[in-house]
Every structure is written in structure tokens, then in C-alpha cells.
Design goal:
The complex is a heterodimer of chains A (408) and B (237). With 408 residues, chain A is α+β, with helices and mostly antiparallel strands. Chain A is built from 13 helices and 14 strands. The longest helix of chain B has 16 residues. The chains are: A alpha+beta (408), B alpha/beta (237).
């Protein structure tokens, strides 16, 4: 006897599926929902993680902020040993030998309660900052109109400023502020550039800002004392951690903090925020994935159920087939292929539907479909057919012909 | 056909001391209590008996659907007890053609496809299968019904499709279990005539029945009672 052609078994299986279209399509629907929800839910999870990462990255992953712990600039510290930050600290951090991963470090001096006017219009910037030109890059604050002021301006203490878009629209509306002279804290200053819009986070309006050379702010507004913070930029996002370590050791030396002693300053970085948000984004994706996996499992149980019903319903048919010479292998593969076809049909249409749905924005999240989730869902659906269909198929094939034939 | 030429023919079936017990202990049912018989190539045998005589059990054993508790059964030269499940399916496929009381066609499958099925399990190519199924259907007088599904055919026609399916593999014997049990008088006559015709063509036909009329169509009658052979007569038709 020659082997039964595989094509024959496929035809038998296909006939088995098409013989009961309603039941077959409901089974396919079960797998379809499972597979598409795996794809969509993981895509939503990934998408929301990506969007959080992107908004954090806008703040700059390379940027590190060093700030003093001893309260405000003018407050008397409880710890008399606590030193304020100085321009010397910032200078020390610009050390290519001791801090090879630091690209730049700029002192930041905040002037308080400053109001700027132009004609009869006025604006009260949330922050007026005196710093060095490297600040712009370190704080991820590019200029969209005009230019930056330069290191020369710092040396000369020239009254030049770059302003944020909120200040620009307060004072100039839609007119160009470039090269206009405004008055801040009673001083005439020239606007050389306008920063790119950064957006608002909570009560903080990142665009309500005026940035000037630190020498000018010291001379005209806050005096020559300690500074508010130091803005440090690491060479790349990957070396941020190394840069933070270098900053810490230089600052320890500057402030004479012994090993194991309590620092009087704090080093903060966006990457640490990014890491924790990555963590929560990952948790979300896993959680959604589990929910989806459960629905895929339910789809698999649906296949088992349908195949068991199908086997029971066709017990007599199996008996007939065996009586006229069907080998066990033929019955086994017929029912296995039936189950596989059902689950693969569900898997394929689930992938199409899932990828299709993922093109829309869901709950304000732009889903990001990962190839691995598509492959996983598809492979799992095929395996479901094999495993969940295998048991009923084996039961069918192991039926003794005499018992199968007697079955009513 | 003379007795002389029959003895020279080969044995198709040889059963020796076969018993079949269902269950065990107090509740054990002895369906067969030691049956021995020989059937030669080309015979037309009716196995008769009342309900519970063991005739269906014997039929299942002859058809390799069931195995004897004790005793030996040879089909052609094969000792069935020595065959595994895979080999048994080959025996069923190539040596035995089944006809059942309730036709047992596969539902939602055309007559032609039903007849083709045993050949498909033998691995015969699609083209050859179609041709042989057409021939088999023509032989039972249903050449024009190949495209019909079982529910579109009368009982007599369904049984003829079943006979075509049993014959399409050119088996060593045709085993018919109450083939006319579910048919009216006219269809019964036609089916018996068909079985006769098949036998005249040289095929061994074994019919299990409880109807005298059916048994009369055969040329040998084996009567079972309580699991024993109580009568075994041959006559010339």
C-alpha cells in the first residue's frame, strides 16, 4: 500500500472545516480576537512607553544638573559647613582629564523677581538666567530665530539676551524682537535670539525665560556670590552615568567631602527619570500582554472544544473510514490539519486586523507594532492548533473501529 | 461449478476454535464459544442466526474490526492475531470490502467521493481513482448518480453506492452485514441480485442475515446458535 497523499488529507481536512461553516468561523473568530488583541495591546503598551520616552528625551538625556543642598542662595544654611556652588566649581568640571565624559559645564545664576518691559508692554519671566554659552546645548535649548550670545559677550559682560517665546510674545506680539532693546530690572538689554518653543509642564512654562551672560547678571542684578546650579552636558546619552560619577568626584574634591561623608550638593540627571519611566512602561506592556495572552488561551480552548465536538460528532464517520482501511496516521493528520487550519486562519486574520487597528491612535497613544509580537502571536496561534487540536485528534485516531461504528 | 473445482481453490477465510468473551467474571458474555469454519475463494455464504447468536461478533472478527479472545483466524495466508494496528488497516483496505445495514456512507460527500475513499487511503492517484470509482458506480447501475450526496439518494441507491465502495478495491471478500435490513422488498430484490452478480464475477461474498429470503440467495448457509455453528449446508444455485 502506498502512503496516503498529504494532499488528500488536506482535502479531507478542508472538507471537515467547510462542512460546518458557522462553527468553523466562530472558532476562527476566537483565535482572531486573541491574536489581534495580543498585537494591539502590546503595540499600545510599547507606543505609550515610546511617547513618554520621547517627551523626556526632549528635556535632554545628556543633561546633568548639579545643585546646592543648603537651601536658597540667600538663606543661612543650618549646616555651617555646607558650601554654596560657585563659578569655580563650574570651571573645575570643565576638565577633559578628570572628567572625560563631560562635554561642558555652565554655571547657572538665577535672578529673582525680574520684570522686563518694551514700550508699555511688560513680562515677568519665570526665570532670568545668567550663564555661559555652553548652557544652550547642555539644557537642550536651541535658538530658532537670531543667534546665541558668545563667550566674548560673557568676558565683556555685555547686555545681550536670548528670550523664550512666551517673553517674546508678551513684549512683541507677532513682531520680530531681534535687535530690539528691552529693559530688564532697569537695565537696557538687546535681544539677539529667540529660543525654540519647549512647551509647558505643569506650572512650569519653559518658554517664560530670559538668558543672559552670567557676568552681566552678576554686575547688574544679583551680585558676585554663589550661583544657583551648574548645568552639565555629558558627551552622549550612554556616557551620562560615567559623567555623573566624574562630576561627583570632582565636586567632592571641590567641597572637601571625605569618602562616605554627606555631600552638600545634589547631582540629578534626566536618564534616571527615563529609566524609571522605562520601567513603568515595560510593566504596562507586560500587563497588557498578559491580558492578551489570556484571550489567546481562551481562543485555544475554543479550538479544543470545537475539535472535541467535531470528533464526537464524527465518531461514526471515523469508524467508517477505519473500516474501509484508513490508517491511524490518516485520521490523526486529518484532524490535526483541521485544527491547524482553523488556528492559522484565525492567526493570519488576527495579524491583519491587529496591524490594521494599530494604525489608529488608541486612547491618545500611537501604537507601535513590534515584529516580535506579530511573530509571537502567529507562532503561538499555530502551536495552539497543534497542541489543543492534538489531543482530540489523537483521541479520534485511537478509536477502535468497532466502537466508533457502534456509536450513535 | 462442481465441488471438485471448489476444493482446488484457495482458502480466503480459515477460522479455528475462535471464542469471544465480552466482560469478565460473573457478567462475562460468551458471544462465540469455539467457532471453526473455512470459506473458499468464490463462495457465496450466508451466516444466519437469531439475535444474540454471535453472528455480528463473527462478522466483526472476519472484518478485522475486532479480535478473538481465543483461537486463530487466517485471512488468505495472514494470521490476523500477528498483525499490528497499522497492518490491520492495510488488510481492511486491501482484502475486505464492507457493506453495512445502515449504508454508512460519509455524509456531505458525493457518491463518487465516497467510492473513491478506500482508493485514496491506498494512495491511488486522483486520476486512476476517478476512473475506477466511475467503473464501480457503473457496475452497480449508478453511473449517473456520482455527483449526488447520500441524502439525495434512496436507501437502495445508497446501499448500491456502499457496495460500489466495497468493491472498488477489488477485495478478497465482500462482507455484508444485514445489507437489506433497512430496505423495502423491491430494493432488497435488487441488492440481492447485485450481490449475486458480483459473486458470479468471482468475488467471495459473505452475508450476515437473519432473513431466510436473503440466505436463500446464497449457495452456502452457516447457522449460528449461542455462539456455536449448528448448521453448515451448501447447495447448487
Amino acid at each position: 500500500m502506498g502512503g496516503l497523499g498529504l494532499r488528500e488529507v488536506w482535502r479531507f481536512a478542508w472538507r471537515g472545516i467547510t462542512a460546518n461553516r458557522m462553527r468553523s468561523s466562530l472558532t476562527v473568530l476566537g483565535v482572531l480576537i486573541g491574536v489581534s488583541s495580543v498585537i494591539v495591546l502590546t503595540a499600545v503598551g510599547t507606543g505609550s512607553a515610546v511617547s513618554v520616552q520621547q517627551s523626556i528625551q526632549k528635556l535632554g538625556t545628556n543633561s546633568i544638573t548639579v545643585s546646592a543642598l543648603g537651601g536658597g542662595r540667600f538663606s543661612r544654611s543650618a549646616n555651617s559647613n555646607a558650601k554654596q556652588l560657585t563659578i569655580l566649581d563650574a570651571t573645575a568640571l570643565n576638565d577633559p582629564v578628570k572628567a572625560p565624559d563631560v562635554k561642558s559645564a555652565a554655571p547657572v545664576l538665577q535672578a529673582q523677581g525680574v520684570t522686563c518691559t518694551y514700550g508699555n508692554l511688560s513680562s515677568s519671566p519665570q526665570s532670568v538666567i545668567g550663564t555661559w554659552p555652553s548652557y544652550f546645548e547642555a539644557a537642550n535649548s536651541p535658538v530658532s530665530v537670531g543667534t546665541y550670545w558668545t563667550a566674548d559677550d560673557v568676558v565683556a559682560g555685555r547686555p545681550v539676551v536670548v528670550i523664550g517665546t512666551t517673553v517674546a510674545s508678551d513684549l512683541f506680539g507677532t513682531d520680530s524682537p531681534l535687535n530690539q532693546v528691552i529693559r530688564c530690572h532697569g537695565q537696557s538689554v538687546t535681544v539677539v535670539g529667540v529660543m525654540k518653543t519647549k512647551g509647558t509642564t505643569g506650572f512650569q512654562d519653559a518658554d517664560s525665560i530670559v538668558i543672559a551672560p552670567i557676568t552681566f547678571i552678576q554686575r547688574s542684578m544679583s551680585g558676585y556670590g554663589s550661583i544657583s546650579s551648574i548645568q552639565v552636558e555629558a558627551k552622549s546619552a550612554t556616557t551620562t552615568t560615567a559623567a555623573m560619577d566624574e562630576v561627583t568626584s570632582i565636586m567632592d574634591a571641590q567641597h572637601k567631602i571625605k569618602a562616605g561623608g554627606t555631600a552638600d550638593y545634589r547631582v540629578l540627571n534626566q536618564a534616571s527619570i527615563l529609566a524609571s519611566s522605562n520601567q513603568s512602561g515595560h510593566t504596562l506592556t507586560v500587563l497588557l500582554g498578559i491580558v492578551a495572552a489570556i484571550s489567546l488561551l481562551v481562543g485555544g480552548i475554543g479550538i479544543t472544544n470545537i475539535m472535541l465536538v467535531s470528533v464526537t460528532e464524527r465518531t461514526r464517520e471515523i469508524g467508517i473510514r477505519k473500516a474501509i482501511g484508513a490508517p491511524k496516521f490518516a485520521i490523526l493528520s486529518q484532524f490535526l490539519i483541521e485544527a491547524m487550519l482553523l488556528s492559522l486562519l484565525g492567526g493570519l486574520s488576527g495579524v491583519l486586523l491587529g496591524v490594521g487597528i494599530s494604525h489608529f491612535t488608541i486612547l491618545g497613544v500611537k501604537p507601535v507594532v513590534s515584529l516580535s509580537s506579530v511573530l509571537l502571536a502567529f507562532i503561538v496561534s499555530a502551536l495552539i492548533g497543534l497542541i489543543f487540536g492534538g489531543w482530540p485528534a489523537n483521541r479520534a485516531a485511537s478509536l477502535r473501529p468497532i466502537e466508533a461504528l457502534r456509536y450513535e | 461449478m462442481t465441488t471438485q473445482t471448489q476444493t482446488q481453490k484457495s482458502l480466503v477465510v480459515k477460522v479455528e476454535g475462535v471464542t469471544k468473551v465480552y466482560g469478565a467474571g460473573e457478567t462475562a458474555v460468551h458471544a462465540l464459544r469455539g467457532v471453526s469454519l473455512e470459506i473458499e475463494q468464490g463462495e457465496f455464504v450466508a451466516i444466519m442466526g437469531a439475535s444474540g447468536s454471535g453472528k455480528s461478533t463473527l462478522m466483526n472478527i472476519l472484518g478485522c474490526l475486532d479480535i478473538p479472545t481465543q483461537g486463530d483466524y487466517w485471512i488468505r495466508n495472514l494470521n490476523v492475531a500477528e498483525l499490528d494496528e497499522e497492518q490491520l488497516s492495510v488488510v481492511r483496505s486491501q482484502l475486505i470490502g464492507f457493506v453495512f445495514q445502515s449504508f454508512n456512507l460519509i455524509p456531505r460527500t458525493t457518491a463518487a467521493n465516497n467510492v473513491e475513499l478506500p482508493l485514496a487511503y491506498q494512495g491511488v492517484s486522483l486520476h486512476k481513482r476517478r476512473e475506477r470509482a466511475r467503473e464501480a458506480l457503473a457496475a452497480v447501475g449508478l453511473a449517473d448518480r456520482g455527483g449526488h450526496e447520500p441524502h439525495e439518494l434512496s436507501g437502495g441507491q445508497q446501499q448500491r453506492v456502499a457496495i460500489a465502495r466495497a468493491l472498488v478495491t477489488k477485495p478478497a471478500m465482500l462482507l455484508a452485514d444485514e445489507p437489506t435490513g433497512a430496505l423495502d422488498t423491491q430494493s432488497t430484490k435488487e441488492i440481492l441480485e447485485l450481490l449475486h452478480e458480483i459473486n458470479r464475477g468471482g468475488s467471495t461474498v459473505i452475508v450476515i442475515t437473519h432473513e431466510e429470503e436473503v440466505a436463500r440467495a446464497a449457495r452456502r448457509m452457516i447457522r449460528l446458535r449461542d455462539g456455536h455453528v449448528v448448521e453448515d449446508v451448501k447447495w447448487v444455485a
